[in-house]
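Re: that chain you flagged

S.,

Sorry for the slow reply, it's been a week of failed gels. I finally had a moment to sit down with the sequence you sent. For the record, here it is as I used it:
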Amino acid sequence: MSKRLTNFQQRALFGIFGSIVVVGAILASHETPFNYFFLLFLLAFQGLALWEYYHIAKAKGYAPLSRLGISFASTYILARFFTINSPYLGFSSELVLYLFGLTSFVTYFTQQQKSIGNLGVTIFGLLYVTLPLSLFIDLNYGLTKNVSEQTPLWLIFLIVATKMTDTCAYFVGKLFGRRQIAPLLSPQKTVEGLIGGLIGSCATGLVFVWITHHYELSFSSQVSYNESALLGLIIGMASVLGDLAESLLKRDAKVKDSSSLPGFGGVLDIVDSTLFTTPLLYIFLRLKIILS
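Prediction finished late last night. Pasting the structure tokens below so you have them in one place:
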């Protein structure tokens, strides 16, 4: 019988497997029927992450409408996906959000006790988890209406830069970490680890631009080396904030992990940084399009 894998080995193996699956799904997402595999993958990830968020809220003593929230969140993701290819459904995602808020209020009409807190926790789940992850669809398909200009490279860049920040921060912090950033939230996060993570994210941006320039991919025409390095730096900072934000929730609820996955603890632990970096990249690209 082999010895139990260490946390590092679990983290490495699960990270490699997860990265292969995610990048593979994104690369194939512009070909039918693999675009539906991408959709199902996104639905599963956001559903599990949202369920884990509601689990944390319950540990704190709240009673969120978990099934209602996950059902409307999944419907919202579906609406965003099909809206990309159908202008006639342009209002559907907003309608889903309206019906979710309306249904949540109606549900609590007979449960007045702690209704403000429970409503807030229920609705905040979509703001915290579902809305940022739904931007995966926009980054992959919806930044431009010209099909020939659509590219999965931005989404791949986002995931690689975010995870490089986490990975570099983890290893540099393990080796050289001395000064803590937020000892009450995450004692293992250090200033040295943060610097290592930011260097990793900036390097990712520079390498990505070099690769796309070299192979003349569509990604290269949209950002310069300076812009990519700056974007990598900002993504790195947002990645750390996203990690600390989830730690804040878990500390408040006195929950160690959002779930139980090898070396990570849960799906929410995997996507927590992405919840902050995805909107940032989306806003950056939308501004680039508007100002160009």
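What I noticed first: The radius of gyration is 20 Å.

Talk soon,
D.
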